[in-house]
Amino acid sequence: MNKLELIRTLAEQIGITNAESRKVGNLFFDSIANALSNGGRVEVRGLSSFKVKDYESYNGRNPKTGEAVTVKPKKLPFFKAGRDLKNRVDLHSGKFT
Asked: 11, 31, 71, 74 - which has most CB atoms within 10 Å?
């Protein structure tokens, strides 16, 4: 499912227009992005949590040339699935725990 499909589903499920649903979806995703940009953490209980991880600088290699390169320190968003989501995915994969 992509963002457009999610917006359509939201509109159908709660009986609003696609334009209204798009606003809700954009507000949701922008709120997550803004919280992470400001160093915050987002938790949707049972579904997932998002946080920013700091990565130190390290020496790597250019895969094309094999040349040694220094990778600068960076911050990247990190997604962690919640227990309910893990169980639901596992249940639908044919595994019963």
From this structure: 11
